What does this fold into?
Amino acid sequence: MKNQTTQQFLKETIQNKKVSERKFWEFREFIAPGSFVFKREGFSKQETTKRLALFNTDIHWPEGTIHFLNYDSDQIHSAEFLVTGNKITDAVKEPGQDAAEILLQTETDFLYRTKDGTLKLIFIRPLEVMKETNGFYDYNGYDKERVKDKSWLVISTIAE
It folds into this structure.
């Protein structure tokens, strides 16, 4: 069932040429249940560097970049960030450097199979989309300045 659901999620993503943020969250939470770790002020740079090594990925570190969420299950590992810019290349250094097969690539969505066969999914969205998808921050109150002028970056690996 999990593999069939994974394949359906991938098929829809490729057909639509875009990740459905809501479907991604549903897929992650219901098909690959795991645990979240949320840090409002962000993980330390050392913790983030270690996490990014899991993805064989690095990001640009302009002032104000916040790595705020990790998700782990037996099938999916994710890291989520508040970043500046609105394209993947604004935030991620050399996206796809470990790609063996590119399934979808746009300025905001990147899905590919790595050389070891793992699926990697990267997408970036405006903060307005993040507000509709998750409620980790108090967007209009306490965290208003923290999230101001930011985009939402998600980096995930998916085991098939």
In short: The mean pLDDT is 91. Residues 1 and 112 are 22 Å apart (CA to CA). The beta strands are 35-38, 58-59, 66-72, 76-83, 92-93, 99-105, 109-114, 119-126, 151-158.
